[in-house]
Structure formats: structure tokens, C-alpha cells
Structure prediction request, 595 residues.
Amino acid sequence: MAKLSRMERQEALFGYAMTLPGVLLMVGLIIGPLGYAVWLSFHQVNFLFPGTPFIGFENYADVLADEAFWASMWRTLYFVFVSIIVQVTLGLVIAEVLHQAFPGRFLVRVLVILPWAVPTIVNGNLWRWIFDGSAGALNHLLMQIGLIETEIIWLGDPFLALNAIIFADTWRMLPLYVILFMAGRAAISEELYEVASIDGANAWQKFVKITVPLQKPVILVVVILRTVWTLRVFDIIFAMTRGGPANGTMTVTFLAYFETFKFQNFGYGSALAVMIGLTTLALALIYIRLLGAPQGNDQ
Amino acid sequence: MSFGRETMHALRDNKLRVGIAFLLVIWSLAPIYWLFVSAISPSSELSAYPPHWFPENPTSDRLGAVLSNEQVSSGAAQSMQAPGVFFRSAMLNSIIVALATTVLCVSIGTVTGYAFARIRFPGRGLLMLVPLMFQMVPPIALVIPLFMIVQALGLIDTIWALILVYPSFLLIYVVWVMSGFFASIPRELEEAGIIDGANRWQVFTKIVLPLSKPAIFSTSLLTFLFAWDEFLFALILTTREAKTLPVAVGEFSSQFGIDFGMMMAGGLLASLPPILLAIVLQPLLVQGLAAGAVKG
Prediction:
């Protein structure tokens, strides 16, 4: 490295001083604990047994041989892809509608964001109540308008319950997509749409040929971000089903929570957690390979 | 003729948009309305069929019970100890933890973000990649070791544990958004300050920070809301005294089953602060969310 001038040295020192508190916090709260988690994953750490013997990759081998792990992993990926496809599609369409001028748009924009403000756990409790088999609002509504004859036990069937959770998640998260896609939509030149109108394109054609391709960078960022976030889904499942019925909504993070804090299996749980991290990394890399790198911080 | 047809089209499009917007508002508000109605309906009306979409005898009993020391006298909640005691302390815990976390993360994150965006020092490029990588670390991989550390420190079930641990996911957000914001300020302003004889720290505090107020407010709002919403860490690091609202609202169940009415009353109270903030500070909220995602 080239020798720094006095001013450059001062600047560098100032830079280190300013970043020090933040870096210390990140080392203490992320790098350190992550290292500890990796250490735990190579040891047998279970409060039922004394000592923490080194066991190499045994925890990982157990994870990979565990049917519950694979089932929960596929379930989680189902959750991730279905929710993101539904939410991106709806988000793009709603952003398009709210981008246009119409009477009362300001108020609509304010109100449409409110579901996001409901805390995740409250959202889960609320939909557990709405989906309730005997006195839930959804069954009562459907029976009142004559769509169903008897109650449907929405959260009583494993696959139905998983989709009900995706539905509840969509209700709360949609505003986030709408906000981001509206910001992306505002950056697209209106001239493109005017030219397309003159050429006789209808609203749907304009949406597919102009909006979607030009929103691609925003879509990519949203998809990566939401994949990373949804892979760790936990709160809403805790509130709505606790992983049941018949493990039908047991996602990987929930499984890791269960193994670690219910069965006190800290080594095994850590191996599961590391696997979740590696899956996240792998998916992010695949996206970037397939769809191109997201635009970074403009410097 | 074609003019008339276009006007017709515009009118039809407008009607269509208003129609879709109306459905959107219903979709967004109906569950929140039901949260409110369930919180104020007497137990007999809660499970009535045909359903009482508008309660005939609204009552504030449950909201009162959630906030007071009195026993609840109705239905399944009978066996519970006065829920108000722990709910009020959870409310206080949530407020303290969210505020303290916000102050801690925004003050440290702003300074770090500025250094990332503006100051040249060896290793900066590598450091700047780090927050991006950390976004991918799943919380469960942190909560397991942090639980053991917090336990070893004897801090389990204290709000200190939560305040100490929350920056693990919020500091990155602040650093990321703020460094993106600082990078967008024209350099000339800072150079002018240097020429006027200010040192780097003075440039930061006297010139840059006053310009950054809107960004700092929106980042603070989002940080507060994320901390208010946090559940996994709170679930694992608290057992009784230090419980926050998300942990407390899930606990309105007894040996007779879940008391949905109480659950909704608690949920309504836990939702009011973020909902009010989202209405009053809507532009800041939108700005903070967009900045966090577009930059991160």
C-alpha cells in the first residue's frame, strides 16, 4: 500500500474513529455470535448431557438425514415462492392503479398502507381469529352470503393452514410492495406511455410492455430482499398455528427454534441455523446470477 | 367523434380506478375494523351467528381489563390472573426498548454511515460490503448464541438484554440508509466548510447533520417501528418481567382455550401507536421504507 500523506493519515484516522462504535457493535452482535453459532454446530451442546464434546460434522449429517428438516425446508421454499409471486404481482398492479390520478387518491394511499403498521404478532392473532373454525368472521361471512354450507376448519388442515398463513402475510406485507413499486413507477417517463397510447396500446399492453420491463431493477431488489426475509418466517407462524397442524406449517426457522429451545439441543439447532444462512446465501447468489446484480449504493 | 370516445374512455377508466381503489380500501381496513369490533364486543356477540358486524352492546370492559388490575369476570378469562398488571408492564417495556434502541442505533449508525459514505480510509470498501452480507444472516443463527451469552451475563429477562441485542438487526438498516443519503448530498457544501476552516467533525455536525434531519427522522421512525414489532428475540430473552407487547398479546389463553376477545383488545392497544404514527407521519414512513429497500 502506498504511503499515506499526513492529511490522508489524518483522514483515515478520523474514518476509523467514526466507524469504531458501529463496527464494535457489529462484531459483538453479529460476527462474534455467528462464530459462536458455528462453534456450537460442531459440538454436542445439550443441557441434558454434561460437557460439550467436539463431534465434527455430526450435527450437519443429522440435519441432512432428518426428514423433518427437508420437509420444513420445502415448506419454507413453498411459502417463499408463492408469497413472493402473489405479492409482487398484486403489488405491481396496485401500484399502477394508485399511480394514476383519481378523486380521493391521497386518502386511499394513506389507508392502503395501514395493514403494514399492524404488528406481525397482532396480525397473526387477528387472522387466527378470522380463520377460526367455529366463530371466525370468514366462515360466518361465507355462510351468510351462501357460499358455504358448513364451517371450514381453515387452520385444521396442514396445507390449507399453510396457505392461510400466506394469505395473512400477504395482507400485511402488500403495502410494502405497493410503496416500493410506486416509487419505481414514478421514475418511469410518462412520455413512453403517451407514445404507446398514440400507437393504440391498451392499459394492459402498456403495463406488460413498459411498466414491468422498466420496473425490473426494483422487482429484483424486492424479490431478493423478501426472499431473505421470508426464509426466516417465524412470528406469524408462532401466532397462527405454532407449526401445526401435523407440522404442516413447520418452517425451518420454527424447526430450529423448536430443536433449540424446546429440546435444549443447542448444537443441533445451531447446525440448522447455519444451514438456513447458507440457503439464504445460495438463493441470493442464484438470483444475482439469473437476473443480474442489483444496483448498489450510488457513490 | 374520436374526441367523444376518448372522453368516454377516460370516464370509464376513472370509474374503474375508483372502483378498484374502493375495493383496496375495504381489503385494507376490514381486518383492522374487525380487530376493533372484536375488542369491544361482549363475549355473547363475539361468537353469535348470524354475526354481529356492528356490535349491539359495545363495551370497553376488555380494554379496561387489559389496562387495569381487576379480574376479568367473563368467560374463559376467568381463570387468569389480572391481565392488566403484566400487560401494562409489557407496554412500558415496549416503549422503553423501542425508544432506547432507536436512539442507540440512529446515533451510532448515522456516524458510521457518514464515514462509509464520505471519508476515505484503507479498508473502507470491505467494511461497506459487510452490512450487505449481514442482511443475510438469519436471526435464528444469532438468537441461539446471543441467548447463551445473555444468560451467562445474567441479563435474561431484563430490558437491557433487548436494548443490547436489537442493534444486531437495526444498526445495519440505519447505516445502509444513512450512508446512501449522505452520498447523495453535494460534496461542494462540505468542501466549502473545509475552506472556511472547519475540521471534518465540524463539517459533519454543523453542515451535514442539519441537512439530514428529514432522513434522520424517517430512519428513526422505521427503526422504532421495527423494534416495536420484534418478536423472536423478545420471546427467547424474556420470561416475565421484561416481556414486550408482541410477547404479551399472544398470551391471552387459559386452560379453557384462547380468549380471542382479550387477544384482540391487547392487539388493538399494541397496534394503535404504529397505526397512528403511520397516519400522521405517512411521508416519512414511505420515504424510510423506500430508502431501506432501494439501498438495501
In short: Chain B touches chain A through 99 residues (CB under 8 Å). Residues 38 and 188 of chain B are 57 Å apart (CA to CA). Residues 74-79 of chain B have pLDDT under 50 and may be disordered. Chain B has two domains: 2-59, 83-291.
